[in-house]
Each structure stands twice: as structure tokens, then as C-alpha cells.
Amino acid sequence: MTEVNTPPRVGGWTRFVTARPRLSLLVALVLTVLAVLAGSGVADRLGAGGWEDPAAESTYATKALEREFPGSQPNLLLLVDAGEASVDDPAVAAEAERLAERLAGERGVTGIGSYWQSGAPALRSKDGHEALIAARITGDEKTAGETLERLAPHYRGTHGPVRVDVGGPVAVRHEMQTVIQEDLTRAELIALPVTLVLLVMVFGSAVAALLPLGIGIVAILGTNAVLRGLTEVTDVSVFAINLTTALGLGLAIDYALFIVRRFREELSTGAEPLTAIGTTLRTAGRTVLFSALTVAVSLAAMLVFPQYFLRSFAYAGIAVVLLAAAAALILLPAALILLGHRVNALDLRRLFRRGKRPDPTRQEGRAWARTATLVMRRAPFFALGTTAVLVLLGLPFLGVRFGTADDRQLPSTSESHVVQQHIREGFPGSPGGGLEVLAEGRATEAQYGAYKERVAALPGVAGVDGPLVKGDSAYFTVLPKGEAVDEPAQRLVGDLRETRAPFDTKVTGTAAVLVDSKDAIGERLPLAAVFITIVTLLLVFLLTGSVLIPIQAVVLNALSLTAMFGAVVWVFQDGHLSGLLGFTSPGSIETTLPVLMFCVAFGLSMDYGVFLLSRIKEEYDHTGDHDQAVRHGLQRTGGLISAAAVILAVVMVAIGTSRVTNTKMLGLGIALAVLMDAMIVRSLLVPAVMRLTGRATWWAPGPLRRFHERFGLSEGEKPAPAGEAEPTRDKVGARG
After folding, report:
1. Going by C-beta distance under 8 Å and a sequence separation of 6 or more, which residues neighbour residue 359?
2. Helix, strand, coil share (%) of the chain residues, nearest 5
3. Phi, psi angles (nearest 5°) of residue 77
4. For residues 498 and 475, what is the distance between their CA atoms, to the nearest angstrom?
5. What is the pLDDT of residues 48-84, one digit of tens each?
6. Rounded CA gap, 92 and 201, in Å?
7. Three-class secondary structure assignment of 157-191
8. Closest by alpha carbon to 302, among 292, 311, 290, 294?
9. Cα 176–177–182 angle (5° rounding)?
């Protein structure tokens, strides 16, 4: 028997991660416990806002008004319902005034105003049975939430002849945080057992199935600790914690699937555990590292945007991707070296079959090989057909309308949603939906009056209140006709900013925040797109050494997302399936959501693309046969990519069961994108396009080819020179 030459097969990294496997796992356990302690309570420190541009005109005006005129920016609304009586009934008025006076004496509350104090028609419902008490809770999001928790139980409910419900922006944000935390716990309870069952079906062995879950849990707990640390220095959105769970489980399972499966295949060829680990890390390990880099790059693009909602997903996403890859490349090899052949223990599939069954991997491989052969034989048909279908599915996105996140993100039964719905439907002029104009600089009463007349004459203005003057500052409230954030209201923002005035003016309000947010995203979107494109092209070139493949990867990945964007508009904007899925459609898509979904879904698509391309490149290096390389790549990774996509989709669907519409949209949209990418793009479009491009697929000019030979990476090992020991074994191991 030929002696195996161990040193070449066990590199430095393998020796590092397997030298002290028990110590490595013990250190990991200690660090995980510390992460649990460090990350505890992280959800309570996360914010529910972050959609506005901190450098925008509207943000400046909002902060100035909060400081100088707190009554102009109420964030707490008490909806006073007089039942069958009128709000002008003496008993009702007396009780409402008592509540307003009591609220004015509360710590942390300022700017009290009510219908009974001002007589403003906008604060009284059209039927006369409801009216509003408005106030501002001071402090940041966390402080305001704590104040609301302290006050709400004392005001909510029946008070003499009236009933009071609590609403307003601060109530919406607080309720959203609470609902997200509850939904996340439920999603984890759904995803974990279902994922474990799917992993058992993929691996057969219960021991092998538990390893990916362990890696995912380590990544999630570690990222929670990172987010907890970040809350000390910057704002982090509560929505980011959902991405942490989804990507932590999904990517950790992807990476562990790839590594564990390759390790088991190496063992099946007769390799010893240490040799199998060495081959696995040199092949699948390199691919995992490359994949993690491509996903991290896509998520890092969100750092160019000023909104902390988007930046939070970059923080969480980059952390969880790197931690998942680190755990898969450090902890998983240590566990595998200790388990050895016992990684195949507890084969639960034996309970459901009789006698000896053929290797399912072989049968699966034959099915994917037949698929690849069929697709490549009819390459023009599949290339044009799948492209046409994907473009057709994306057409609804051409009618997208952008808006802001509001109370309609919450379930229709939530208290703050009910309050805002009553205001939208029953009150004139949409209280809280007006535009505020901050005037800075000394002016006379006549100058204020002339400016007010010019504003009142603008198209789309229903009325102008003010000015309220304090020192050298004043503000006007402009009520737009129609909805608070529709197209006329957004045009009115521009008209107000262009209106002549003898003082400096700054416009804020819901529509102004939306306009500024759209402008901020539009300005930085090209930079994010260029960043993702250039870095992705470079990484895929380093993997393949081809000029054409990176371009194909970027174009096909972007094409794979069309169904997601089309479905988002058709379902969540237009309201189709709203009853089935249990949400209220606001008639628009929150401005930052498409950016977030593109970055996450593009990264995940590249994740699967790297898995497929690395196997194709490995086979092409060994055989030089382009068609065989494409066929072999799909044969060896088709089942793996499909299994990983289904598992990740299960996790995302679990997140999509959230009662918050944005989270539902994120989960279900990305689940659809992942499945479309794995089942359509990787299985049909990629092999069809590569068949059409033929051997030209691998072309690169001389300088770039030499650059790749020196710095490039690939999953497979270079073919051994003739006469070198064990050529057959190397080839089999590299193809495993």
C-alpha cells in the first residue's frame, strides 16, 4: 500500500485549527458565554427610526423646532372618545381639560395642546365625537419610550364620560420595538426545529445536522454582542436584529453544509480525518472564505448611505457574515477532527428505509447532470426563456411609489395603529401630516404676513397657521391638500423651499423628510452600485481568472432579483394578498427597503454563485473541457445549493411571519429571491449562458492572466505534474 505523504496534504492553517481541537472548542464556548452576557438586552437599546438623512434640511428644522417650539412637533396623541356625546359637552370638556392639565405636570412632557384649549378644527373629528390632546415627550428614542411606558397605563382607558387611547409617533415606535422582539422569538422557535429537520434530511446523520446549527447560534450570539457594543457609540435600528438571525442561521448553515459535506466525501474515499480536513479547508474552505467576502462587500455598500436604518444592516450583516465564516473555518474543523468518522453517526434515515439504499448523493448528481445536459443542449431557448420570465416578473416595479414607514407597519389591531387610522379617516386636514416652515432671522409682523400670503397662494395648500414667534425665530404650519406624503405634498415641499422670504426658511414634516430621504439615496446610489460592481468583479476574477465570468455573474445576479422587486410592489404596495398575509398596505414602499433588499439578496446570490463557479473552475482546470466543467459543476453543487436555498428560505419565511410589514416584506422578499436564484438562475440560466459563450468564457488578456496566476484563488488544487505521487487520489479528492 502506498504511503500517504501527509505534510503536503496538511497545510499551516489545518495544523493551526486542528492542533488543539478541545482547547479551541473550550475557548469558543467561553467566548460564546461572554457574548451572551455582553449582548443581553441589546433589543432594548435599538431604535425604531433611522429613515431620515441626519444632514438634511428637514432634520435640521425638526431639531430646531423641538428645541425652540416643542409644541410644534407633538409625538404623543391622546384620542379622547366621547361615545355618543359631543366633545363640546360640558362634562366631556371638563374631563378632557383635567387630563390635559394632568399631562402637563408629568415629568418629561412638554408642548401640551388640545382641541379644548385651542378650538382648532383639525383637532376635532368630523362627527364631533372624538378630539385630540397633543404633547411632546422629550429625550431620545430610549428615554421617550421609557416615559411612554410610565405614562400610558395611567391615561389609557375610561375616565369618567370619555375613553382615551394612546397614539402618536412615539407610541408607534415603542409598539414596533415590542412587536419585533416578540416576533423574533417566535421566528426562532419556528426556524430552528424546521431547519434541524431539513438538515437531517440532507445529511441523514443527526450529528452532522447539529453542526451547522451550532455554527449559526455562535454567529448570532456574537453579532448581538457586537451590536450591543455599537449602541454605545452610534444609533442601531431594531430591524437589524432580524437580519442577524436570518443571516446568522442561513449563512452559517450554507458554509457548514459545504464544509461538512466535503469532509464526509473525503472520508468516503478512504482518507484519514486529518487528511480529509486538510483537503476540505484547501478546497471548500477557500470557497467559504471567498463567499463570505462577496456577501460582506454587498452589505458594506449600505455604509455609504446616511440613514442609520441602512447603516445598521451593514453593521449587523458584516459582523454576522464574518463570524459565521470564522466559526465555519475555525470551530467546525476542530469539531470534525474530534468526531472523525462519527460525524456520520445517528443516521435517522435508516428508520424510514428497508435494506441497503444507493448513495443519495450519486442519484442526486445524476439528476443534476441530466438537467445540465438538457439545458446546454437547448441553451438559446433556456437563456432567452428564463430571461424573459424574470423580466416579466419584475415589471410591476416600474410602478413603484416611495413613502415613509408609519403606523400601518403595525397590525391593524395595535393601539397606535387604531388611533392613527381614526385620525386619517375621521379628522379634517390630517393632523400631524402638515409641513412646518422654520423661519430664522429677525422680521417684522408685516414681513411675516406677506410671506404667509405667498405660501397660502401656492397650489396644493389647504391652509396656513402661524406664525408663532420666539425671539428671532418663528414657524408656520402648512396644511397640504390630500394625503400627507402623496406626490402633490412632495411637490409642495419644493415650492415652499423656493418661495421668497426676507428670512432664512427650512421646511420639515413627513413629506419633507421623504423628499430629503429620496434625494440622499438617489445621490449615493450610484456610488453604492459602483462599489458593489467593482469589488464583485475583482473577487470573481480572482476566483476564476476570467474576464467574462465576473461580468456574467454581476448581470445574472441582478437579473435574479427582478422577481423579488416585482413581487414587493405587487403584494405590499398594491395590496394583493394583504388579507392572506395579514398586513395593511400603505400604498407605497418605504424608501430604504429596496436598497436594503438589493444589497442582502445580491450578496446571497453571489454566495451561491461562488459555490457553483468554484466547482466549474476546478473541473475546467483539471480537464480543459468547458462543457464537461459546466455539467460537472452543476452536478456536484446543484443539490447543495438547492438545499442551502431551501433552508435559508425557511429562515427568511419565519422572519416573514412578523406582524411588522417591513420585516414581513424583507423576509418574504428575500426568500423569493433566494429560491429564484437557486432554482432558476443557477440551475438554468447560468449553464445556458456559459454554453453560449463557450471556451471564450475563460479568456483573459495576458497581463490579467499572469496576475491571476500569482494572486488568484480557487477551490481546486492545480493539476499535479506527471509522475507525482497519487495523481488519481488528488483528482478524485478535488472533485469530491
Report:
1. none
2. 70, 10, 20
3. -125, 130
4. 17
5. 778 888 999 999 998 898 888 877 778 899 999 999 9
6. 65
7. EEECCEEEEEECHHHHHHHHHHHHHHHHHHHHHHH
8. 311
9. 95
Residue 531 near residue 602 (C-beta atoms within 8 A)? no
Element of type H or E holding 334: helix 332-339
Q: What is the pLDDT of residue 565?
A: 95
- pLDDT value, residue 730: 38
The residue whose grid cell reads 416611495 is 402
d(CA 177, CA 146) in angstroms, rounded, equals 12
pLDDT tops 60 at residue 628:
yes
Q: Cis link prior to 7 (omega < 30° from 0)?
A: no
> Cell 422654520 identifies what position?
438
User: Contact, 213 vs 253, CB < 8 A?
Assistant: yes
- Integer Cα distance of 506 and 497 in angstroms: 7
Let me know the angle formed at the C-alpha of 212 by 211 and 218, rounded to the nearest 5 degrees. 90
Residue 39 in grid coordinates: 449582548
Q: State how far the Cα of 466 lies from the Cα of 474, in Å rounded to an integer.
A: 8
For residues 38 and 20, give the distance between their C-alpha atoms in angstroms, rounded to a whole number. Answer: 27
Positive or negative, the CA dihedral 180, 184, 187, 189 is negative
Amino acid at 95: E
Average model confidence (pLDDT) for the chain? 85
Displacement of CA 494 from its chain's centroid (Å): 31
What pTM was computed for the model? 0.84
- Cα–Cα distances (Å) from 505 to 439, 473, 491, 508, in that order, read 5, 10, 17, 10
Q: What is the pLDDT of residue 412?
A: 86
DSSP-assigned letter for residue 368: H
Longest dimension (CA), the chain: 104
The pLDDT > 70 percentage for the chain reads 91
What separation in angstroms does the CA of 56 have from each of 61, 260, 486, 528?
9, 49, 20, 19
Residue with cell 429571491: 673
Q: What is the rounded CA–CA span in Å between residue 687 and residue 592?
A: 34
CB 299 within 8 A of CB 290: no
**pLDDT for residue 734 is more than 50:** no
Cα–Cα dist 578/576, whole Å: 5
Which residues in 391-417 are b (16+ Cβ under 10 Å) and which e? Answer: eebbebbeeeebbbbbbbbbbeebbbb
* Contact yes or no for 268/280 (Cβ under 8 A): no
Q: Residues for the chain: how many in total?
A: 736
Q: Read off the pLDDT of residues 157-177 as tens digits, 9 standing for 90 and up.
A: 999 999 999 998 899 988 988
How many Å apart are CA 11 and CA 477, to the nearest integer?
70
Q: What is the DSSP string of 635-695?
A: HHHHHHHHHHHHHHHHHHHHHHT-SSHHHHHHHHHHHHHHHHIIIIIIIIIHHHHHHHHGG
Do 78 and 155 form a contact (C-beta atoms < 8 A)? Answer: yes
What burial class does residue 63 get, using C-beta atoms within 10 Å of its C-beta: 0-12 exposed, 13-18 middle, 19+ buried? middle
Q: Which of 7-11, 231-235, 302-306 has the highest mean pLDDT?
A: 302-306
CA dist 397 → 330, 385, 402, 518, 574 (Å): 42, 20, 11, 16, 11
- Burial of residue 267 (CB within 10 Å: 0-12, 13-18, 19+) is buried
Mean pLDDT of 262-267: 84
